[in-house]
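Below is one record:
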Amino acid sequence: MSNTDFRYGWYLVGKKLFIDVYTSGLTSEEISATVDEVDACKLTITVKGKKHLLDLCGAVSDPCINIRPSKAEIALQVSSKVAFTHLLKSEEVAAKRHDKAEKYRSMDVAGEDDAPSDLMAVIRNIYQNGSDETKRAMLKSYQESCGTVLSTNWAEVGAGPVAPQLPE
């Protein structure tokens, strides 16, 4: 995937961003534009099978392509409040956002297969089957220790504040 090795120009009219791709003789099958689902600032333009990634300085949506004899005009709805003084972000910022988007995509995929762990089932069982004092002790110890202590002994927990116990 290349970044900007094709000729293009752009202009903004109200809430519409227009990107002109200067390649003559294009058909509607030879060009496409898609906005990334995770990061609406990323626009992928495919021209004659070659993909070009543009990291725009603001979020866009609804790409619409109009083919003309000497160019293809891509109209996009601007969905962010960024004033487009320039079209693309710097390469460094673009790389960071891309890495962040990839990280979240992989997290989404990894989270789909997660099943409840055995430890969570044990804790849930203790809480559901415990007495009111046990439930109170579990809640108080967990909240006051910032999630580092989980006790079922109300006599111990009710005597005073529960201090956080960080792992060694």
